[in-house]
Amino acid sequence: MSDWRGRRILVTGGAGFLGSRIVEHLKARGADPFVPRRRDYDLVDRDAARRLFRDAQPQVVIHAAAVVGGIGANLRNPGRFFYENLMMGAHMMDEARRFGVQKFVSIGTICAYPKSTPVPFREENLWDGYPEDTNAPYGLAKKMLLVQGNAYRQEYGMNAIFLLPVNLYGPGDNFDPQRSHVIPALIRKCIEATKQRRGEIEVWGSGHASREFLYAEDCAEAVVLAVERYEKPDPVNLGSGEEITIRDLVGTIVRLTGFAGRIRWDGTKPDGQPRRCLDVSRAHREFGFRAKTSLEEGLRATISAYRESFES
Question: Mean pLDDT over residues 287-303, rounded?
Fold first, then answer.
């Protein structure tokens, strides 16, 4: 897919945090992305998914839509997260198969990996155990896209690929305290506490767990490169390859936001998966992707964008 001009590409979740960036990268390459809205097409409903294909007439599908959230949201909504993500993926891929699209790109999740995966996570470890309990329903629902894609490739010759982004962050992230992931949650807590002159913030867990983060703009570039260059059934990690403990992440965000108060660690709350860090060599080898944005650089941009929205 070296020539994007005029290509009709359906991007589910194309108005969202990652999807909107994918759409901009596609437009810059001359493609013609179609972005459905949930109010018009509820993809949990098979008939809505079928109608979407009739309306969009896509040649390529990038399925980036998902019902997502942090540890708290996953604990409150395990059934919803499992059902809606599973149904959206199953309907979209089957309708794509019936419609005869040239390529189907599934955006999975790092939560699909087993809880005890050795670090760095390698794609061949994906089936070595059960995911971490706090987000297993979500992770398994997204993981079924890999199963479905390979089954459809075997039976129908469908060109389906599966990408595994690590935790994403960046300007425009979800800062809702009930649904946000760790970086936007910490940024909001630090900035609000500073503005309100509060002397401490609370952080879940012990701080000993580790995570890897990928700037959303870099992830969008990775997805588009995979659409262009990757054709194999094997899943591919998308990440920076750099690991940081939550305690060190908190320290970095405290420093960059200027929060001068105390950190209170709530050890009664779960840490989630003990460690997350990816082997990202396959993405570089197969389609030339390397993350460009350092964590500190990305955090500065994210904090700056949130300050502007907070103060406006």
Answer: 98
